[in-house]
Design brief:
470 residues; 16 helices; mainly alpha; two-stranded antiparallel ribbon; globular; 4 strands; two-stranded antiparallel sheet; disordered N terminus
């Protein structure tokens, strides 16, 4: 049950802000950690305002629809890099990391829900940054969120080119395939409501599930690795930590969670969506990574769909087309919605079906997808791009920032009891964890990008990037 925008119950009670912060529908001064004060009116309590007379209604998602969108956004490209993670560091540490980082991601996702229910006006990471650090926090967090989403969009265009090269046996210049991917993703991002994407999300999940099952069956029959696996591996810091960043990327959906909650009919049901996502992705990650690595061995490809024979690669990539496109579209939608809401929040244009509002949405999405295409062409190695994205942004949005959210919600009560003290220590460690992943991950991904550049992997190249043999 929700009261004045908050869910009831003891857990929700912990998540409510104190009396000197923004509460309910009243316009009150909110003191931020930077010392600034912001004044929010009742219209800003909800990012989409009163939709009773709106032509476009955004808050239409049921919890299961939001859960499917979260699954489609998260279980896509990340799962395709995980078998190569086990090949890089060994199956034992790899499986432990996949499970451990998944459990932590479940907790940090739960904290995001608490923070949203405590501050109903939050629609994105920029709004959350404003709560934590004032105006400069809003700008920094907003820019970082937008960059992360655009980089993820770029990774989907990159995977689209790999898919097209595989299916067509390099039937055209890779740059041309990238442009085709840009156009397809742009067209699919034109609807303004997440509710319009929810059915595509179901198709996306079925797509990636079928693709990895085909790949697991193919490598199980063909056994290209001859059953040779390593429990552990010796590697340099850069070679060992780049796979860790790929696991972090596999849990990188948190950056969009505030946006998903904002379009739920009943925001307090978000936790059902979260547990649906985390149960599905952690189970699938462990199963797919272990099976494909066990049969493909040390030479497992990344993306993993390239680990079987050319025929099965073509079949798997063909089946995976919906998830390659739709998961990118969801991230593109969230990126465009951040800009759109910032431009039109509190105005009638937010809910209008006018040529101007549609035109602005179309222009925003076009610019974002063009930038994503530039990124995909500039960093053409799949694992390097995922590592760079994870190090710069996912380290914070999936892990570090949630520790800050919890510390902010419980400020002044960090050591109120033994349990509270333990939780305070845990959340400080999560903040530290985010910082360490960023620093070590940047080193590892930078080393990888430099190595690939020196071996002739070129940017803006027509060359085949699928590594498929005819």
């Amino acid at each position: 049950m929700a009261i004045n925008g908050y869910s009831s119950g003891p857990k929700a009670e912990e998540a409510r802000p104190s009396e000197d912060t923004y509460v309910g529908k009243k316009a009150v001064a909110e003191k931020t950690t930077s010392g600034d004060s912001t004044l929010r009116s009742k219209e800003s309590d909800d990012p989409f305002g009163d939709e009773s007379n709106s032509e476009v209604k955004y808050k239409v998602l049921e919890w299961w629809q939001a859960g499917m969108i979260m699954i489609a956004e998260t279980i896509s490209l990340g799962i395709l890099s995980l078998p190569s993670v086990l090949a890089s560091i060994g199956i034992v540490p790899g499986m432990i990391l996949i499970l451990g980082l998944g459990l932590i991601a479940t907790y940090t996702g739960y904290v995001i829900g608490q923070f949203k229910l405590a501050y109903p006006f939050i629609h994105n990471m920029a709004d959350a940054g404003e709560v934590l650090f004032g105006r400069w926090g809003r700008e920094i967090f907003g820019a970082a969120q937008l960059l992360l989403l655009v980089f993820i969009m770029g990774s989907h265009i990159l995977t689209f080119t790999i898919m097209m090269n595989t299916v067509t046996s390099h039937g055209a210049c890779t740059i041309v395939f990238g442009i085709v991917g840009l156009i397809v993703c742009y067209i699919c991002t034109l609807p303004r409501k997440l509710g319009d994407v929810s059915h595509l999300a179901i198709a996306s999940f079925i797509s990636i599930l079928a693709a990895v099952i085909i790949t697991m069956a193919a490598v199980g029959v063909e056994k290209p690795g001859h059953g040779e696996i390593d429990a552990t591996m010796q590697a340099s810091l850069a070679d060992a930590f780049l796979p860790v960043t790929n696991i972090v990327f596999a849990y990188a959906g948190h950056v969009a969670f505030f946006s998903f909650i904002s379009e739920l009919k009943r925001p307090e049901e978000y936790y059902k969506s979260l547990f649906l996502l985390q149960g599905a992705d952690t189970f699938m990650y462990l199963l797919v990574a272990a099976v494909i690595y066990a049969y493909a061995g040390a030479d497992v490809a990344s993306p993993a769909l390239g680990s079987s024979s050319p025929l099965f690669q073509k079949i798997a990539y063909g089946v995976a087309i919906p998830t390659i496109v739709v998961a990118g579209v969801i991230n593109g939608h969230v990126a465009a919605k951040y800009i759109y809401v910032r431009m039109y929040r509190g105005t009638d244009k937010m809910g209008q079906k006018s040529l101007k509002s549609y035109g602005m949405w179309a222009l925003i999405t076009l610019v974002l997808w063009f930038v994503a295409w530039i990124i995909a062409e500039a960093i053409p190695v799949f694992n390097d791009l995922l590592g760079l994205i994870s190090s710069l942004f996912s380290s914070w949005f999936t892990y570090g920032l949630s520790g800050m959210f919890w510390l902010h919600l419980h400020k002044g009560k960090w050591f109120a009891s033994k349990k509270q003290t333990a939780m305070t220590v845990v959340n400080f460690l999560i903040v530290l964890m985010g910082a360490l992943i960023m620093v070590l991950g940047l080193y590892a991904s930078g080393t990888g990008i430099a190595a690939d550049a020196s071996t002739g992997t070129g940017s803006f190249s027509c060359a085949d990037n699928s590594k498929t043999t005819a």
